Structures are given as structure tokens and as C-alpha cells.
Amino acid sequence: MKKKLLTLLLGVVLSTNFIIQANASSNAGWVQASNGSWNYNKADGSKTTGWLQDGKDWYYFWSDGSMATGWVQSNGTWYYLTSNGTMATDTVVNGYYVNSTGAYTTRPNGNIYTGAEIKEKVRSLGFFDGKYGGLILNPNGTNGLAQNDYLDFSVWNDSRDMNLTILNTNSEVDKKIRTIFNWILPTQGNTLYSIGDDQNCKSQTLELDGRTVTIDVQQRFMSITFGPIK
């Protein structure tokens, strides 16, 4: 009787273990999250982070398990992930060459600028220090009235890395805006400029060059916030 009972208990344990393993295995592989992002689950059900080779293709996953697209920096080297997540190799991406290993070999001035570095470059465009820590572009310089300000550029240390507020504009100011966008977004600055230049542009959030870019369109101004590179 005891032997029979032990056999039954062992069978239950093995059966339960099999079910757990089967459930974990059924959730392995590519899974699309409710927000539309893609994850790749391991056999135990946990999410893959970092690099993953699936067949002949390489993919990269952020720390939250979501699949990356656009430019990604890994161990000091930049790689480009296409819109479907595959790593680009031996091709030119928006004017920048990535070699057979996926690593870029040429890039504007050889680097991606930090917020502090971009702030100094923005200053060279004729901006001056404002009252609240940002940089202001005004046709009359420091003596100009606030209502005549063209642009207001700021850098933060929290989750919002940089912000450019567009108050007034003309053809010359537009050139400066495009320049700033291309400093912040080395491969997709022109894309952002085209979106913002559209008279039907609405408030929206975008993912460009590894940054979350938030466009806030108001009646009298447009505010564009650039998150840190992920």
C-alpha cells in the first residue's frame, strides 16, 4: 500500500513538473507585448536582454526586454537595427557605413554628443544665457524683449535630456533648428525636421536614434523634448 502511494505521489510530482516545463516552453520565442513591442522569451519564460542571434540575424533587446530599433551603442561601438529589429551589416544607413560585423566606421565628428556638449555647440549659433539656465536666441540679443525670442534650448539631468522650444521662426532660424536636430539625432535629424515643419504636425511621441522624442504642439509655440540615449 505504501509503495503504491509513493508511486502515485511520484507520478503527480513528475506530471506537475512536466506541465510547468511545457507551459514555460510554450511561452518561449518571439512574443509581442500589449504595447506592440517585441520580446524574445527564453525556455524558462524570462525575457532576453542584450544581443540575440536568431538564425543568421542579430537582434538587440533593451533592459526591459523590448526589441531595439535604430542606433544602439554596445560596449562602446554603435550598431544599427532596422525597423524589423535585424542588425544592418555592410551597408550605408543615412550616409553612415556599417561594416560586415554591423559596427559603424564613420560618423559625424566620430561621436554622439552629450547634452552638455550640444549646449556649447548651440551657444555658437548665437544663443545667450537666459534667466532660468537655458539658452535663448533673440534677434536683439540680451537686450531683446522676451516676446521676440526665437528659440529656447535647455539641458536637464533627469529623464528629459534636452528640450528645444520654438517660439518664432524664419528661414535663418529654420537652418539653426535643422542643425540642432542633426547634432542631437545624427541619422534622423532631418526626419524630425520634416515632421516638425509640417503645418499639420500634431503632438506626438517618436523613437529616433535611440531617443524618445516628444513633440508638444501649442497655439503659440512648439516644444520638443529629447530623452537620453537608451
Automatic annotation (TrEMBL):
Superkingdom of the organism of origin: Bacteria
EC number: 3.5.1.28
Record's signal peptide: 1-24
Start-end of each Cell wall-binding repeat: 48-67, 68-87
Record bears the keyword Thylakoid: no
Keyword Hydrolase: yes
Entry keywords, A to Z: Hydrolase, Repeat, Signal
Pfam family name, one: Choline_bind_3
GO molecular function, one term: N-acetylmuramoyl-L-alanine amidase activity
Protein name listed in UniProt: Autolysin
Species of origin: Clostridium saccharobutylicum
